[in-house]
Amino acid sequence: MTESYRAVGPANSSAKAVNLVLIMILASLGPMLYSPTVSAHDGPNSVIWPMGGDEDTGWVLLNASGADPANGTQASTDWTLEFAPGAILGNVSMEIMVDGTEGVTIQQPLLLSPDTGQVLFDWRGNGWMGQNFGFDSANPHQGRLGPNADVGATVTMPSGSEITEFVLEALAPADPFTSLEPVELYIQDYEIHPADGRMYAAIGTFVVVFDAQSSPNAIDLFEIENPDDNYITDLAMDDSNNRMLITTAKGVMHSINLTDTSLNPDLPAEPSGGAWSQAHIDTNGDLFAFSESGVFTLNTAGTGWTLEQASSTSNWPAGTPWKVFEYDGIIYVSLLDGGIGRWDVSSMSPQSPWSTANNLHSDFISDFAVAGNQLLISSFDAGIARRDLSNNFWLATWNSGNWLSSDEVPGLTVVDNEIQILTQDTVHIYNTNSGTFSSSIPLSDLGLINDARNIVLWPNSGPRSPANDTVMVTDGSAILAMLEPGNSPLYTGDFVIGSSPSSGDMEDAMQFNGMIYVGSENYLDRYSLSQSRWLSPIDMGDTVSQIVNDGTNVMVGTMGSGIHIVDSFGNVIDTWDSSDGLQSDDVTGLDVEGDWVVAIHPEDGASVFNTSVAGTAVSLNEATTDLDSDSPTGVAIHNGVAYIGTQFNGLNRYIIANQTFLGAWVSTGINDVDFAPVAILGSNPQVLHMGLPGYGVARKDLSTGEILIPLTQKPNSPNAGATEILPTNQVYAFESYPGNSAMIIGTSNGAIRWDGNTATALPRGG
Q1: What is the predicted pLDDT for the residue at 122?
Q2: What three-state secondary structure class fits 445?
Q3: Which of 563, 609, 643, 755 has the smallest set of CB atoms within 10 Å of its CB?
């Protein structure tokens, strides 16, 4: 950006008749009297008129003047025809012709008789004659092909018109792109079209054209030639030559036409073969170009460059030109690692440079701005220096030690009486009227989670510009937060170029209610299926482990911050953690059914709680409950039963309502069984028993299909469980009592009688 003030005044396209030359061609006032053609002639003492005749004026060119856009005065002109006193006019005819090919045009003409007030011709409200600058109604026209044509663009012209030339600028709008991996876009520079207010943004090798009033906002895109690692370094608006200049890392300076965005011939290359870092058109209309070699101007023939000042001298420091700014006849050039070079436009000579060697706060300058009588100089590492231009002395620096959140300041803008300062993580607003910092907005409040990258000013300056002056900030995520200085609220929404997830590391994903939720490291990313874009990510505080929903809200387990409950608008409405009774803030998995949630922890068992009732958390662990492992591997809830996976003890089952455990589902570990005795015990319910040598007795409730706790070998301890009853796990035979009231279980180490509740050892034979 090389203009002293980036806002360019608008060209008002309304009522162009008041500021253009009004040209009218009238013809043939037909026969007016009834005698052969005659005209007045001078006599000795008077003008003599014939008794009758007609008058043919021929073609007459009328030029209207006197338009004043300030007060709405329209251009006008008078045309006087003389007739004999008392003459009666009849059969008057008139013809109007406007020939745009001859440069004759008019907008909304009105022809009337000032004496009688009679309107002879009225084209008001019908636009131009001789030429037309746009479509009816909305101009420029915007439409989508549906499916392969758009018939909404119309132009109204006088009947019988002959079209001799038709010029159509067809742009290629693009919807915001969607990426499945993180992207980072850096806006190297931007410019504003001087007539219609569209924005040109240089991103890598591309120039993207934006229209604030269009949907989508990106209305065109073109790429510079890209051999090797070429990229755009600067854009410069050259209004007087109706062009925009594009400098590149390969030393080529391109030029595009501002009327139709066509490419003009390139300007001469950088003489030393290096990169053009910056270009600037000064207040006199002279073209400057800056490289690491020094300061250049284009010669009068436009065929080559003149080295005005070499770099690495006492007058011009070494360094890469980063930003150019002109104010009051002085060009200020940021030279990375070299401070600031200064050039006097009127004397065409350098002024003494500024650096840390002579009171400049930093040698890495990022941006310039002027507010009142102060020159503001932002830096990448030391805050903002301020120079009193009236008295030529330095004022106190703004930095992290006083007013700013960070010493890294990528840029700043000025709108009316407010200065917008972008630091690494905050937008600070300084009010020049009150001399105070009026507000500070963290980037996270604007939906931006990365470090700041760009701040740009898009003024209200034409039909393609915003309705109000707009400042946009971005963290490189292709989404720019829009701020309207002086208005409330300040943050008005997002300007979306594209969208992507916050991280390439996906921990979990879930689709719910038209949204795809993705756990990306510490953030909950949200992809809207209806908008086809990623929404602002939500900071979860720690790594996301699992995402579930209760039919209304989303629940997010984290490794360190417990469980967050997120509503459909992306607001965190509640959090459950160890302060609410959870076993741990580390949650490796969770599930929800109704208001009940079961969460598992890496080394602390599981927690059960009701989201509607505070203080309901129940702890499940090996020490105090029948949970078989304090390191569960997974959890799911079905019909009020929590199924908790373990690494070595199968699937534990927990009834939430009465806080009791059912028998775990485990693998028998027995394969290729040669024989397996089977018997049924009981009548209501009937329980199927299957003997598996080496395992014990597997059991199933035939009425419910429930797998019951197996009967296994009695341990060598006094605290045997209710189902640890067998002499050994080597089961060989079953025998049922009549009515299935009890059964005999034979093993390799004796037999027992089992009635479903109690086991009795049978005596051994001699």
Answers
A1: 87
A2: helix
A3: 755
What is the tens place of the pLDDT at every residue in 62-73? 888 887 877 878
Give 347-416 as a 3 state SS string: CCEEEEEECHHHCCCCCCEEEEEEECCEEEEEECCCCEEEEECCCCEEEEEECCCCCCCCCCCCEEEEEC
Neighbours of 573 (CB within 10 A): 10
What is the pLDDT confidence band of residue 128, given thresholds at 50, 70 and 90? confident
**Residues 653/641, Cβ–Cβ less than 8 Å:** yes
**Dihedral over alpha carbons 422, 427, 433, 435 (to 10 degrees):** -80
CB half-sphere exposure, 527, CA atoms < 13 A: 20
pLDDT at 553 over 90: yes
N-terminal to C-terminal alpha carbon distance within the chain: 107
CA distances from 49 to 38, 39, 54, 87 (A): 8, 7, 12, 10
pLDDT tens-place string over residues 371-399: 999 999 999 999 999 999 999 999 999 99
Strand partners, 243: 238, 257
Q: 506-665 is classed in which CATH architecture?
A: 7 Propeller (2.130)
Q: Cβ of 647: how many Cβ atoms within 10 Å?
A: 10
Residues paired with residue 698 on neighbouring β-strands, in sequence order: 690
In this prediction, residue 106 carries a pLDDT of 82
The CATH number of the domain covering residues in 177-411: 2.130.10.10
Q: Using omega within 30 degrees of 0 as the cis cutoff, is the peptide bond preceding 147 cis?
A: yes
Buried b or exposed e, range 537-567, using 16+ CB within 10 angstroms: bbebbbbbbbbbbbeebbbbbbbebbbbbbe
